[in-house]
Amino acid sequence: MALDIEGLYRRLGPMVLRRCRALLRNEGQAQDAMHDVFVALLRADQRLDEEAPAGLLLRVATNVCLNRLRAGKRRPETPDDELLMQIAANGNGEARAAARGMLAKLFGLDDPLAASTATLAVMHLCDGMTLEETAREAGLSVSGVRKRLTRLRVRLTALDAADAAKGAPRDHA
Amino acid sequence: MTTRENKTPDWLVERLAHGELDATAAAQLRARLEAEGRAPDAEITALLRADRETLEAQPPGAIAAEIRRRAAQRPAPARRPLYTFGAVFAAGAAALVLVARQPAVTPAAAPAPLEPTRWKGTPIPNGAQLYVYRHAGDGDRRLPDGARAARGDLLQLAYATADGGYGVLVSIDGGGAVTQHWPEPGGARAVPLRSGGEVRLPSSYELDDAPAFERFFFVRAGESFDVAPVVAAARALAARAPEARRAPLPLPDRFAQTSFLLEKTR
Question: Which of B95, B66, B59 lies closest to B80 in space, CA to CA?
Answer without folding.
Answer: B95
